[in-house]
Amino acid sequence: DKATEFAPAQSRTAVVLMRNPVIPVSQADKYDGLVLNYQINPFYSSVTPKKQGAFLKFNQIDLTGITQISVAVIAIPTASADAKIQIRMDGPKGQLIGEISNFPVLVKMGKKIMNQSMASIEKINGLHDIYFVFGDKTAGKDIGQMKMQAVQFIR
Q1: How many helices and strands, by DSSP H and E, does the chain display?
Q2: What single DSSP character describes residue 65?
Q3: What is the dihedral of CA 15, 21, 23, 29, to 10 degrees?
């Protein structure tokens, strides 16, 4: 901007970092108790939980305007009935903002079932670390019978 005789020159710059609303699990910032099954195409990578309380962490996600969180999950039919994924804020034992425990069937591939499941979340503003914590309703033995591939944040 050029100055005028009545006002001095003004300029301003701002940098806004945009993140794709669909994030493959291979781009998680931290994971614990999970095995990463890495593929060349990150959207084909998956994580498999190996213990109750295993988690996946994404740093500084802007939740402003987000109303739902969707996960892409592959589960063996016997495991999908008891499996659950808790969505927590700012720590693996932080505030529970959503839970996915019903994995509706979309596509059958042999014995595996591909699922896209959603959790509605309450209105939350600002940047937060988001944790996806794996478990099952009965604390059974089949915790490793599911794989998560991607997360989507939906407005």
Answers
A1: 1, 12
A2: T
A3: 40
- Put the strands of the sheet holding 127-136 in their side by side order: 30-32, 55-62, 127-136, 83-89, 95-100
CA Rg, the chain, in Å? 19
Q: pLDDT, tens digit, for every residue of 10-46?
A: 887 777 667 788 899 999 999 999 999 888 888 778 8
Cα 90 from chain centre: 13
Could you tell me the CA-to-CA distances from 49 to 5, 8, 31, 71, 141 in Å, in that order?
67, 60, 10, 15, 11
Q: Taking the chain, what is the end-to-end CA distance rounded to the nearest angstrom?
A: 36
What span, in angstroms and rounded, lies between the C-alpha atoms of 94 and 137?
Answer: 19
The reply to whether the predicted model has a pTM over 0.85 is: no
Contacts of 148 (CB under 8 A, 6+ apart): 25, 46, 47, 56, 71, 72, 73, 74, 85, 132, 134
| Dist. CA 7–CA 67, nearest whole Å | 44
Q: Residues, the chain, total?
A: 155
